[in-house]
Specification:
The structure is a single chain. With 418 residues, the protein is mainly alpha-helical. It has 22 helices and 2 strands. A two-stranded antiparallel ribbon has the order 1-2. The longest helix has 16 residues.
């Protein structure tokens, strides 16, 4: 069904076509939409092939641009669109553990953007994981030649050194990384592990105790502290860490066939997003079985618009089938006032479009966020049609953020028509 939109409401929307998106959630259409989740719109290799063919016709943009990197707005050089898309495919493949595809995508991205310390760092990381140590070292050196103070290059090479037993070299590099960015939890955790492997267990435990004081929601930090305490025979600290881990592992609602992230794991992802640590949030999400698209959705729900948009663009470039990523992109664009990006995201969500729209249904949180967007832009009727014949319950969502959004949407829609 389509939603009739008065002219006054249409003027509030970027385009009248917003009204058609409610079709996705009408009962019959939503059932068909959800049934399509078994299919994938594009495979990584197909996307790689297509993007490689496009490199010869990619256009140029302005010489300087501003972009969001881990929560900071940084001015830098223009990067070709195909290099961005290849990087996205590499990041998605790396997150899935498909290292061969990830390396191929990153190296193709480097062809289009050879002066990216980030791309060279990812190349070094994947080469190391594939056992190509010498080639990995050359990639890390290239990254530091481009940006001598690029913290991830030091941190990732320290991780690589640790994996092959070069412990003193690893410690020197992680110390440099922490000096460059002392607030990163992954750097502190890596340093503690290196100290433990060096036999400096007291130093490792001291570093981890400091970390759990600073990050009490970090299950990673508590797990590392428990392991260090057990190894040192510190029963009291080991039991304290075990109790805290049980508290953080309170499970949410079960989903058949898939492990549900715990409240503690979701809180860690959210904390990383709030701190602007998008790369760390991605890693935590992978450990928690949270999809890359849901990272973008949670960033949008938290109001971290730069992180939401960056993650959503990466996921959409690598997997156009994801409706959740498009919802996150639409919400971030709407809240930041970018009507062109909002229109593009909404067009991509339209199932009646020639391309057919996304084939992976939006998550529960994504559905709520898009209902809220429709309520702001079109009106209550459009939001209600998107959600279906009945409102979702105000309680019972699996984590604090989802509960807050659900309750807010419930209040907004129960407050009357707009």
């Amino acid at each position: 069904m389509r939603v009739a939109v008065p002219l006054s409401a249409a003027r509030r929307a970027p385009r009248v076509v917003l009204a058609t998106f409610a079709e996705i959630a009408a009962p019959a259409a939503l059932a068909a939409f959800t049934a399509l989740t078994a299919f994938t719109a594009l495979t990584a290799l197909t996307a790689l092939t297509a993007l490689t063919a496009l490199t010869s016709i990619a256009g140029c943009a302005a010489p300087r641009v501003a972009r969001s990197i881990d929560g900071q707005i940084i001015e830098g050089r223009t990067i070709a669109a195909h290099a961005y898309a290849l990087y996205a495919i590499g990041a998605e493949a790396e997150a899935r553990g498909d290292l061969a595809t990830a390396l191929e995508a990153y190296e193709l991205a480097e062809d289009g953007d050879p002066d990216s310390a980030d791309i060279w760092t990812r190349i070094g990381t994947v080469r190391c994981r594939l056992g190509r140590g010498e080639a990995a070292g050359a990639a890390f050196e290239r990254a530091r030649a481009i940006e001598p103070d690029y913290e991830p290059a030091y941190r990732e090479q320290a991780r690589c050194d640790l994996s092959v037993g070069r412990l003193e070299a690893a410690l020197g590099r992680i110390d440099r990384a922490i000096l460059l960015d002392p607030d990163r939890d992954d750097g502190a955790l890596l340093r503690a592990e290196i100290l433990r492997r060096l036999g400096r267990t007291d130093d490792a435990r001291l570093a981890l105790r400091a970390l759990v004081v600073r990050r009490p929601w970090s299950a990673e930090a508590w797990r590392a502290l428990r392991a260090a305490a057990v190894e040192a025979g510190d029963r009291a600290v080991a039991e304290q860490a075990a109790r805290r881990l049980r508290e953080l592992a309170a499970p949410g609602a079960a989903v058949p066939g898939r492990r549900m992230p715990s409240r503690g794991q979701l809180a860690e992802v959210d904390e990383a997003l709030v701190l602007g640590q998008l790369r760390r949030a991605r890693r935590l999400a992978r450990d928690a079985d949270l999809t890359p698209a849901e990272v973008a959705v949670r960033a949008a729900a938290l109001g971290r618009l730069g992180e939401a948009r960056e993650q959503a663009e990466l996921v959409s470039a690598a997997d156009p089938a994801s409706a959740s990523a498009l919802v996150a992109l639409a919400v971030a664009a709407d809240l930041s006032g970018d009507l062109d990006a909002l229109t593009r995201a909404c067009d991509a969500l339209d199932l009646s479009a020639p391309a057919g729209g996304p084939t992976v249904a939006p998550s529960r949180l994504a559905r709520l966020l898009f209902a809220e967007l429709l309520f702001r832009r079109v009106g209550r009727d459009a939001a209600l049609t998107w959600l279906g014949p009945s409102l979702p319950p105000a309680l019972g969502a699996p984590d604090t953020l989802s509960q807050e959004v659900e309750q807010r949407v419930h209040r907004e829609l129960a407050g009357g028509a707009r």
